[in-house]
Amino acid sequence: MLNFSWRLRATRHLACTALLALVAGTWVGASPAMAASLEGQTFEDTAVLSDRTLRLNGLGLRGVAWIKAFVAGLYLAAPTKDSAQVLSMPGPKRLRLKIMLDAPSNELTKSLTSRIARHEPEPVQAQIGARLQTLASLIDGLGELKVGDTVDLDFQPDRGTVLRLNEKPIGQPVAGDDLYRAVLKIFVGEHPADKRMKEGLLRGGV
């Protein structure tokens, strides 16, 4: 009888624990689905790209004064707070932009091309010039970006830079890790478009 009562209490305890776990959105023995958010924009903590699981390294807001353009999320194979390591790290990467302002996509193109023209050495500009224009044309082709849109700039080692809008691939991949590195520098390089955004992207894990 004592043994039965102990089992009954243990069963009830397990049932209560399971119920609480379900209410909390987790299950005992399983990893919960995690996410991070900034300015109301939510990012999953992992992404699968080129058969690799990437982890969210950080989030950063791109904005001027009270105007908020987008929140960027950087996904890497290994967390780091070192911008040089981000730029030299082999393997797939993802820059995800969650749009917070209605604007034509060529505004994004102008920022990208002007900063590369300003900060990349001439030999690098000459080397990536034609491919940069191809990528710029793809971004221009997105048209009017709306609040709630998601733009991905992915790097896949066997393909190159892949542009996606709301999970849909746009055009053909643009080859070369040198091109993607030049784009990435705009976010986390020595001369970022937004220093606070850079700091957020380099948190080393969220």
Account of the 3D structure:
The protein has 206 residues and is an alpha+beta fold. Helix content is 39%, strand content 32%. It is built from six helices and eleven strands. The strands form three sheets. A seven-stranded antiparallel beta sheet has the order 3-4-5-6-9-10-11. Helix 3 (106-119) runs antiparallel to helix 4 (122-140). It is globular, with a radius of gyration of 22 Å. The termini are far apart.
Short description:
This protein has 206 residues and is α+β, with helices and mostly antiparallel strands.
Radius of gyration: 22 Å
Q: In sequence order, what are the helices and strands, one letter per element?
A: HEEEEEHEEHHEEEEHH
Biggest sheet layout:
7 strands, antiparallel
Number of strands: 11
The secondary-structure class comes to alpha+beta
The 3D shape can be described as: globular
Give structural attributes:
32% strand; 206 residues; disordered N terminus; 39% helix; two-stranded antiparallel ribbon
Which SSEs are present, and which pair or pack?
Blueprint: H1 2-23, E1 35-38, E2 41-44, E3 46-49, E4 52-64, E5 67-76, H2 83-88, E6 93-99, E7 103-104, H3 106-119, H4 122-140, E8 144-145, E9 150-156, E10 160-165, E11 168-174, H5 177-188, H6 195-201
Antiparallel strand pairs: 1-2, 3-4, 4-5, 5-6, 6-9, 7-8, 9-10, 10-11
Helix pairs in contact: 3-4
